[in-house]
Amino acid sequence: xxxxxILLAAGLLGLFFGGDWxxxxxxxxxxxFGISALIIGLTVVSFGTSLPELIVSLNAAxxxxxxxxxxxxxxxxxxxIGLILGVAGLIYPITVRRSLLRxxxxxxxGVMVIAYLMVLDxxxxxxxxxxxxxxxxAFMGLMLFIAWHxxxxxxxxxxxxxxxxxxxxxxxxxxxxxxVVRLLAGLVLxxxxxxxxxxxxxxxxxxxxxxxxxxxITLVALGTSLPELAASGxxxxxxxxxxxxxxxxxxxxxxxxxxxxxxxxxxxxxxxxRIIEFDGLVMIAFGLLLVPFVWNRHINRVEAGIxxxxxxxxIVATVAL
Length: 321
Hints:
Number of strands: 4
Number of domains: 1
Strand order of the largest sheet: 1-4
Shape: globular
Low-confidence stretches: 155-170
């Protein structure tokens, strides 16, 4: 059993460093093509930080552990709002753009509600998975259109100075090869880390008599959320609000559309009743709790503290139930 804990820790470290390398490589490549910080946060960074969840959930579903697959997604979405925005907002208050409030918040809430309605019959089948995947393609298309539209507008001198102050100078074209290698190395680490995490989480759950659903919602979800925590925490320290919050909202959208969508297309997922009766509703409640905080265009330290306390209360309730 000690070996299982060691291998689980190794798997989580692989997820953390693999996610970090993938995010760095992908973000720098995106910047080299002139894509804005907000779009990078909503797409490249959020997709990169969601890859651990995707690979873990796919592995879990293929191994017959649907509770870990679904619990990982629900738990990660709750952790993204409660833990990650809570920690990032405590580090530095987060400024919220009007476009994020009008466009991305409604998309995130809508996606989570649709996913919840899909699981009411106790399964996410291939038709559900296909619809979620089509939603992912539509979201990516929207983001690419916005990026294309933004790139048609030349940056003002002030905007260019702000970008360089926050992100550093754009990497040269001849450095793109190095970032591709970094990205691929991160992806390999993610795959290895995901397999170690799932295999050993299942063994530990069986040994100590805790359900796989609880392990998925707490330990696995927290482990796969480490890349989001690192990305948003570092962005907050650098006062990069767009990446800090864009990463969280984009990641929640990707978690539902890509992870549940792709996993269900590969293998239909059975859904535990507890997800329907408790955890799925808590996920939506966390999304709704975020609305009044971002309505004033910022998340201050008091609001961030409330999010963090709410997350701790959820974990306590999850373990106690």
